[in-house]
Amino acid sequence: MSIEVRDLRFGYGSGEVLRGVSFTAKSGELTSILGPNGVGKSTLFRCLLGLLKGYAGSIAVDGEDTRRLTAAKLARRVAYIPQSHYPSFNYSVFNMVLMGTTSQISLLSSPGEAQRAAAQAALERVGVAHLRDKGYTHISGGERQLVLIARALVQNARVLVLDEPTANLDYGNQIRVMEQLRLLTGEGYTVIQSTHNPEQAFLFSHSVVAMKEGRVLAEGPPARVVTEELMAALYGAEIRVASLYGDRVRVCVPRSVAEG
Amino acid sequence: MEENRRGRIALLGLGAALLVLVFVSFLLGRYPVPPGMLLRILLHKLLAGLGSLLSPLVPGAAGWGLGQSWDGSMEAVAWNIRLPRILLSCLVGCCLSVAGASYQGVFQNPMASPDILGATNGAAFGASLAILLGAASQMITLSAFCFSILTVAAAFFVSRLAGGKRVLTLVLAGIMVGSLFSAGTSFVKLVADPSNQLPEITYWLMGSLSGAKWKQVGLAVIPMAAGLLPLLLLRWRVNVLTLGDDEARTMGVNAGRIRLIVILCATLITAASVAVSGMIGWVGLVIPHLSRKLVGNDYRRLTPASMLFGAAFMLAVDDVSRNLLTVEIPIGILTAFVGAPFFIWLITRKGDAF
Fold this sequence. Notes:
A: 6-stranded mixed sheet, 12 strands, B: 0% strand
């Protein structure tokens, strides 16, 4: 399933936050939205998830306008994986994942055997089945993030939207979460994440959308998009891009460090 | 499945405790009814009731029942005085706790209670006003019920006028409208006749089930059933709603609509409870939390657990209220005696952070 954003415009009150955003996120690819705080990444995601509807332009999942879909139908196409959080009430990890099945059951019913089996399978798939009876707020941030990924998987959506999934995680957990996302793109999922970290774009992304002031500055493969000029334009920082391992990997280094 | 088993056992335990309490409550009181006699009276009533239902189908069913071997006044005490009171305490306890648990879920706030949107303040004003106007007891109940619903409706429309976060503005509007009505109640108390109306208002505000009659049970049970049923059926969706509107919506739950339905139903059962019992605080906050301790936060178990626990708790408190002293202690005072220390424990204990 691919997601196509065309000339998206949105404003809160007088100020325009999105000023014509267009890009395509393809099936089997991890697309990273890169850009400083306040460029409209969160607003863009709220539009993608159907939480904001008063926008101009269009968002289509496999050619279907998302605004025409009901909340339940959209949930079966696009899943949201929030940053690992602390909800007001603690639920078991298993029940947390089970909540992802809600769009598949009727309004007045509770999940049945089929939904429970799906939740168990999803927990096993992301490697946190041993946590199933633990309280969601009693596990680590990285584990919570994996649980939320499992929850998105039982939703049966093929598009996964993540808002800075690694922002609050330690280094080991960042790698675990990103590797999980890469596995999922390998299985044909469309993954869209926002990130502050240009190296994640190099290491894990297939495509990068660089945003500034509500517009797309550049879109394409990370090696082509994430350049020294772009980093200066995005963040106002002087950055050198270095190539490693026969250009299979690139890293960003501040010029002050790179050139002493 | 471990969690499931524990929850089931807890629910069965609560159910059993409630049944025992119901039986014990029949025996308590100034007029003694021996247990054996009580069982026979209840069985007789059951058979007679069944018989009159089946009489068009089964010839002779109308005469079913046990030979009367008891005093008629004993039957009157058990059947016309104690049973309606037992039923009404159970219903009120059940409704207030479920309303509290449901409000907590849809407001994502563990401190929410049934009066969060002003339902009890509205009822207090309605009852006081009716007493001031010299209304009969049925009219006082009706007025309390209507004003209770009216208060929440007013809070809801005020919050619609305001922008911003819906949940927050709704709670703020509830506090404002509620305090407006409690100012109204104060005014009514000021102008009420201090020799007869004022004591009646004061007594009503302290909460009591002493006036429980079959008629009241019959009236209250209709809105209560109408509110409880959707809350039971929607309890899985309430789980999803506790994660917040945005997450709920991305999981395909129409958060605004479910919240509206839950608020409507919780308000309906709160209004019905307060209208027949007066102001009974704390139950709607304390019982949901004790139930959470027992079965966890999953509303699939929490809602039924709150119902059973609330019913049992209110029944026990009412037994104390009518038997501890020679005069009845208003039940609202007793629940406050239990509730306030519990609240202090809740906010000072270590462990789960709120």
